[in-house]
Amino acid sequence: MTIVIHHNPDCGTSRNVLDIVRASGVEPVVIEYLRAGWTRPQLLGLFAAADLTPRKALRTSKSPAEALGLTDPAVTDKVILDAMLEHPVLVNRPIVCSPKGVRLCRPSEAVLDLLDTLPPGPLYKEDGQLIIDASGARLS
After folding, report:
1. What is the pLDDT of residue 136?
2. What is the largest CA-CA distance in the chain?
């Protein structure tokens, strides 16, 4: 199974998702999108596959979205998409692609639905929250 994660190593949620995928026994393809940037076809494809719009995928916290005027409801998806291409940090993360689908994995346990095999438990997030217990049962 090939899994691709569009990852920001400075983001706790993104790190949690990467750890969960690795704990499931898969070494994903990791794309650090802040370095690589985005292309218009790439974002449009990811958003279509994940049933997202640019507005739904817009990161509004810890990003320049508000300063750029992108949180105004009158701003079009085209304007938001253009801004995302110029400022990759505006795309919420992590976006994970697997044979089971594409998803914006917030919260991080959303990635569990994209895996063939759940990681063995117990499994905790960085903040100590238990997401898979010792018996291997999901808690979310």
Report:
1. 86
2. 49
- Cα 128 from chain centroid (whole Å): 20
Determine, yes or no, domain membership for 20: yes
Q: Is residue 92 part of a domain?
A: yes
d(CA 53, CA 69): 17
> 3, 11, 34, 84: which is the annotated catalytic residue?
11
Q: What is the pLDDT of residue 64?
A: 95
Give the strands of the sheet with 4-7, arranged side by side. Answer: 29-32, 4-7, 95-98, 101-104
Cα torsion 34, 37, 43, 46: sign: negative
Question: pTM of the full predicted structure?
Answer: 0.92
Cα–Cα distance between 25 and 22 in angstroms, integer?
Answer: 5
Assigned domain for 128 exists: yes
Alpha-carbon distance of 119 to 21, in angstroms, equals 8
Q: Is 97 a catalytic residue?
A: no
